[in-house]
Predict the 3D structure of the following.
Amino acid sequence: MSLTLEQFGIDRLSNEQRLELISLLWDSLPDDATFSPPDWHLRLLDERIAEADANPDNVITLDELEAKLFKKLP
């Protein structure tokens, strides 16, 4: 049986509430919980690492990233 968003009322939550729920769920996992990312996550990570390695000058610093992110916040 697959669970659905509707069963838990998640479909009625705002985006902010859904993000908070994700955080609560993540934090509820025990420290020794095992997790294996899906294969497509690993493939995407490999692709992004290869892209970064192929274009090392096409990056921004963490400070630049934070400045861009916070500039867009209301």
Q: What stands out?
A: The chain has one domain: 5-72. The mean pLDDT is 91.
